[in-house]
Each structure stands twice: as C-alpha cells, then as structure tokens.
Amino acid sequence: MNAWPSLAGTDMVAEYGGTTTQDNANILDQVNLITFTDNEYNFPSAVLAVGIATSFTEPTYFNGRFYRPGQIVNADMIFNPAKKFKTPSIGGTGTDLFSTALHEAGHLYGLSHTAIKSSTMFFVLPPGQEAGTLEADDELSYLKAYPNDATLGSANRIGGTVVSGLTGEPVPGAIIFAIDVASGDTASCEFTLPDGSYLLLGLPDGDYLRELVRRFNSEQEFCNGVLGSKRIGSRQSLG
User: Fold this and answer.
1) Which structural domains are found in the chain, ordered by start?
2) CB neighbours of residue 146 within 10 Å
3) Phi/psi of residue 3, each to 5°?
4) In angstroms, rounded to a whole number, what is the distance separating the alpha carbons of residues 11 and 2?
5) N or C: which end of the chain has fewer CB within 10 A?
6) What are the tens digits of pLDDT across the range 113-128?
7) Which phi and psi angles does 152 have, rounded to 5°?
8) Which among 11, 222, 239, 10 has a CA at the least distance from the CA of 115?
9) How does pLDDT run across 26-73, given as a tens digit for each residue?
C-alpha cells in the first residue's frame, strides 16, 4: 500500500488500521477493507480483484462530517475468492499477488485505468511480476492527484482543450498521449474532461509529441492525430 504514497513530491499518508473479522466489503461503512473472502461481490470470471473508492458527486454531510465532491469516503480491495495468488517467497500457482494489489491500490487512491500498456494501471495485468513496479505514467497520475505544495508550484505542465473541427464543441473522453521525442516512449497520457480540457502534470524536461486518439462511434473506429510538439523545462507552464 505504501508504494504509491511514498512517491516523491506527493502528499498522501496511508496507515495500517489493523485486522478485522469482517469478510464482506460495504461501500459506506468506512471500514477500508482488504478481503479475500467476500462471498457477496459478483465477479466476472476473468476479473482477479477490484479496488473500489467511494465518493460523492456533490457536497455531502455524512457520518458527522462534510465531504467535497470526489473526496474518498470509503475504499475497499476485494480479491476474487475463486482465483489463486502467489508470492515470490511462497510460490505455487496463480497470479502474482503484489502486482494485483499494487494495481488495485491505485484504484483505492482514486486512480482510473490508463491507456498505456506498460503501466501498472493498464486494465489488463501482464504476466509474471511485470506490473509489480510503478511506471512513469503511474507515478505522474498519482502526482497529479496528490501533489504537495512545492511540486504543484514547480511541476512542468502541458495542457489544452480539444474541440471538434466541425462543430467547435468540446471533445470529452479523448486520450492525449505525451510521447518523448528522444526515446520514442510514451511518457504519460490523460483523458479529456467534459469541457474538452486536459492537463499533463510533472513530465521531466524534454521534447514531447502530443498524440490524440478518440473513439467516435460504437464500432470501435478511431480518429488519430498529432497535436504538435512541446519543449518543457523547469518551472515552465505551456498550453
């Protein structure tokens, strides 16, 4: 659980709360549970585990305190009781436990899936222990969610708004990839918000291509385009 909060430049603390005899998760009981024995959650056959972070969509008074929209109220990690897991020390058959837990912990902290296949937060778990370390995209997603004051004031930024060339309307849900020109690797990605805006925070100094990928109908057709390159350096903010 500490792999995420220990990232440099972030401001989040995770504390071990001890054990409980509770088996089944409840999204509003404010018991942040990790369980392998929940017999009520209806798992699809291919799903190894789920990480569920619960929040409200508007300011809400709950259980003696006020919560802002998006503020996490409860978080649970539920492993599929029908699946087998293994660790390097114990061995056996099954899926690497740490890789699975690291991914689901990202969800507990409010992160969604990424479109970058090499990232821990990609929706398909790679074989072995390949998802057992956080990649650059994972770290930048977490940094954007929980930056400390110093990071927020100094981090590089690439942002903008995507609008339709036909209607001028904002384009929500498009994926913006930041591709490192020097290495050719995809450093980070972000989805556009309902108003078409996006922000890539914390990229290292360098030259980046911004590639747009948008699914525009139910037949899985895609529209691709390069938005242009950006050079970013320390303490710069570029649109």
Assistant:
1) 34-144 (3.40.390.10), 156-238 (2.60.40.10)
2) 17
3) -60, -35
4) 12
5) C
6) 999 999 999 999 988 8
7) -60, -35
8) 222
9) 999 999 999 999 999 999 999 999 999 999 999 999 999 999 999 999
